[in-house]
């Protein structure tokens, strides 16, 4: 990822065809390690391509990647809507209320 970031920084600085040495200069300026083979591979993959087209293609690929727990929340909400999990949730709430009531019976208060 750091090689891609260095490549993008070089392009944003006006160098539309950065070399391995350009990327090394950028990465060494921040103390990052460099790997010439990986940088050469990256540059061979992106040489001759427009950066805006590369970013657009990357966005399309990234949009198809599932991320987050959205599916889990939906799956958890479905049984609750069917009525299967709702009584269990109500029982838990009742237990919490009972616990709070028992604390009140002890006669302790922070504001007395």
Automatic annotation (TrEMBL):
This is 60S acidic ribosomal protein P2. Belongs to the eukaryotic ribosomal protein P1/P2 family. Keywords: Ribonucleoprotein, Ribosomal protein. Plays an important role in the elongation step of protein synthesis. Gene3D superfamilies: 1.10.10.1410. The keyword Isomerase does not apply. GO terms for molecular function: protein-containing complex binding; structural constituent of ribosome. Residues 89-98 have a biased composition (Basic and acidic residues). The lineage of its organism: Eukaryota, Viridiplantae, Streptophyta, Embryophyta, Tracheophyta. GO terms for cellular component: cytosolic large ribosomal subunit. GO terms for biological process: cytoplasmic translational elongation. It holds the Pfam family Ribosomal_60s. InterPro entries: P1/P2_N_sf, Ribosomal_P1/P2, Ribosomal_P2.
